[in-house]
Amino acid sequence: MKGLSYLLITTFKNRFLSLKRKPVLAVLYGIIFISIIFMIVAFQADTTTIKAASYKDIRILYGIIALIGMLYVVVFSSTGISTGSTLFSMADVGLLFVSPISSRKILLYGLLKQMGATIVSAIFILYQIFTLRDNFGIDSKGILYLFIIYAITLFFCQLLSIAIYIYSNGNPFRKNIVRVIYYGIIAIIVISVFVLQLFRGGTLLENGLTLVDNKSFQSIPVIGWGVMFFRAGIEGDILALIVSLLLYILSSMVIISLFTSGNADYYEDVLYSTEVTYNKFQDAKSGKKTFTKNVKVKEKVTGIKKGIGSSTIFYKHLLEKKRESRFLFVDSYTIIASIGAGIASKYISSGVAGYIILAVLIYIQFFGTMLGKLSMELKRPYIYMIPQKSLHKVVAASLTTLLKNVVDGILLFTVVCIITKTSPLINAFLALAYASAGLFFVSFQLLAQRLFGGQPNKIISLTVGLGLFFILLSPGIGFSIFAVSVLPTALTFLGTLPFTFSCVVISAFIFGFCGDLLDKAEYTIGSN
């Protein structure tokens, strides 16, 4: 065990020391750490009180915990049926699986390593402490319980995924048993909500909240256990708190005993999952599509056959889009987002629905755009070999992403317009604002490459990108909010113009400043 302890400590130390070669990453981690400390101190120092009558129903928070638990059960169970999860990296496989160390000790090493990663991933909850306090009256103790139960649930579901894979691998009958169990539990929950509505009346939401507040519901594995733990914590019910923890601990012990039983070789089972996870990560870094099942790719048209110089990149992307979807620029995201926008439009006041939906869609758009075609092309050598101006090449590599944002904006806000029955002009300008935000995010990919060099770390790019979005565009956002509040009703559609104008001007400046990026190889060649 001394060797494994040394490996854990040395790995952590080397990651920390590597920050000397990555000052931007060190600064980012410092900012994150300081911001968390600042929020915690401010949270403790803020003595502002809010009347309890203004708090929202705490059962809403119970419902969110239950939904997250349900989502993780479905996702990790499905993963367990197909490929399983893993506690190890490929480096661990090459270093530990062939070493003369007890498999139980290696498993303990993997559990500790994964537990640390899970705790780190739960840190995002700390950014919601003021929201949770102002809306639900949650104090620091409640935040701590929420942090703990999220980490426990995520860690347990990862163990569950491995156990399901070991149990069902190569056995279709067992896989069907697993599907019946987790889909059956969800079906029972949904049916229970409708039964309550049938006998009690009221809305589906009210009956759903009544269900999650029921102690029988809280006995459901994972989905209800998390609610039981959190509720017991904030109410001071020590017995229920101990019971919920024991349910997680005993179940985890059963799963771990399955790993180490004489009939189960978790080395072999976890090895495949580790390889799959590693390959997906590498494919994502190189911009390749990853599939968990066999997908028939349409290749009726082969070869690009169009374009000269940099425009060839654009036509290549068009061909890839045609193979991904029958309708150009309309994919599964467009359909799902349109349905979501339509549902939101139905239940949000029509006066502000468009603006709220725009804000949510721009947040989602950020992640899709940052992983778009331009970032993929900058990792390949071909774009550097085209004998044309750098600016022409980066524009050509960005064009399909920009056009998709335009198409998505038109379709999404057409749905909003139909549902809310608001002015087509207002929704046209909302679609324009959505497209202009996409332009800003595309331009930021160039800025990230210029600032960070190499292949920018995705965590850094995403974090800094969101920060710059709010810093650079805060004047435009502020003026848009002001304009919407003061403009007469007939001119309200012009309210988003300041935001749109800011996006376009700043993006044009970034393209102009960073457009020669490909002419400076030292900015793009290398790795983190």
Name its key features.
single chain; 528 residues; mainly alpha; 2 domains; globular
Report on the architecture of this protein.
With about 525 residues, the protein is mainly α. It has two domains: about 230 residues, no CATH class; about 210 residues, no CATH class. The protein is about 75% helix and about 0% strand. The C terminus is likely disordered.
- Provide the low-confidence segments as ranges: 290-295, 522-528
Q: What structural class should be given to the helix and strand makeup? A: mainly alpha
Strand content: under 5%
pLDDT average, as an integer? Answer: 76
Individual helix count: 21
* Count of discrete domains: 2
* Tally of strands: 0
Element-level helix/strand string: HHHHHHHHHHHHHHHHHHHHH
**Considering DSSP H and I runs of 4 or more, what fraction of the residues is helical?**
over 70%
N- and C-termini, Cα separation: 32 Å
- Outline, from the CA principal axes? globular
Largest sheet: none
Rg calculated over all Cα atoms: 26 Å
